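Pipeline run #58 for the internal structure catalog. This entry was flagged by the ingest filter as a single-chain record with no existing model, so it goes straight to prediction. Upstream metadata was stripped on purpose; only the residue string is passed forward. Reviewer on rotation: M.T. Logging verbosity set to normal.
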Amino acid sequence: MWPICNEVLCENFNGNNSRILRDRIKELDPLGQRPVTAAMNGGYDSEEFIESLDVMGINYHHGQYDSFHAKKPKKALIGSETSSDVSDRRVYANDPTDRKYVSAYDVNYPGWGETAENSWCSVETRDFIAGSFIWTGFDYKGEPTPYGWPNVNSHFGIVDIAGFVKDNFHYYRSVWGDKPMVHIFPHWNWEAETCSGMCSMESGSEDMFVTVWAYTTGDSVELSLNGKSQGKKYLPVEPTSPNSSSSRPVKCRHVEWDVTYAPGNLSAIAYLNETDAGVVSDLSPILSETKHAETYIETTGDPHGIRLSTDFDGGCVVLVRAEVVDESGRMVPVANNTIIFEFEKNGEEGAHAGGIIGLGNGDPSCHEHDKPENSTYGIRSAFNGLARAILQVETVTSGGSPVRSGPYTLTASSQKLHSDTLLVYPKNGC
């Protein structure tokens, strides 16, 4: 699709302006006659303008979906910008005073937005809406809604600014994906101090109650703590809009439990269920039940070492993941150790070019440099167990032929932790 305007820019358009742009787009479109749209944040009564569009786009105002469709039932419709929910990776309580973090539970959003669940359910329950675009895929520099300094980037993404996924990423896997999955959170490393603001406690008791969420492509999820069932929950079923041509019930929600915290193993099994009514709920008699997916999280030990791996190897650019792990090799989800990255070009002198070109950790309040001190040395702290190094790798040619004399070496070290080394091989064409 070709968009001709977004929000405030659309306000200055009229039907004549939009028709001129639309016709010009159709003339120049190299692939031929792709539809023209606009991402509107109001002005839904602009008849001439709307009629000039092939596809109507509505930003955020999901309360307008039904009324617009009733007025123009043959006009194609998308959610051109939706949600704007805010969250931070592995943070589970809002911190409005110190680091200005936002909880990863899908409950926070600005006045113009909605939760991820409510935004998508508004689309999924209406078959006259083709789909939606979410704001945003990644966090980005600036616009640190709902806070300000010390935040230096946004919280809108389902992936943080270092390229690590947040819990909401798994929500979209559950409603958009076709692979069996179940995801549970939060992490399972809690103490009274770190659980403050998130856990609930009964008066006169030292018990901490943690709210556990699950996203799944299944129909139900059973949660267990250290082998003891915490109960099975059935995904809520959303009714379709009266304006939809289909009455098929929709699953677009999560399930949750309040669990008395104890360290150990928290596991979940998702099931596919069959009922004679065709709709699964905790009130429906289950005719059959099939294990669909399973997962677990564990309480980890203290940081013991660093583990390096490659998230993406594009040949010329490599995204390296640095995990702070315990003695058993489990990523420690609360670790914020400072990591030193050192890059070495092995083989013949001058055979390779490149080095460390970027560092990150996804912390919206981190003021450390995103660029290393030089191409062979950089420092970045981990944020909740993870840090990122970005490498540029190039093979220098000699006499028109690539010189391939050995790999690059990236070493990550931290005080009192075991270090790790990753070998990265240059590829032809870089």
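catalog note: The radius of gyration is 25 Å.
catalog note: The mean pLDDT is 91.
status: ready for reviewer M.T.
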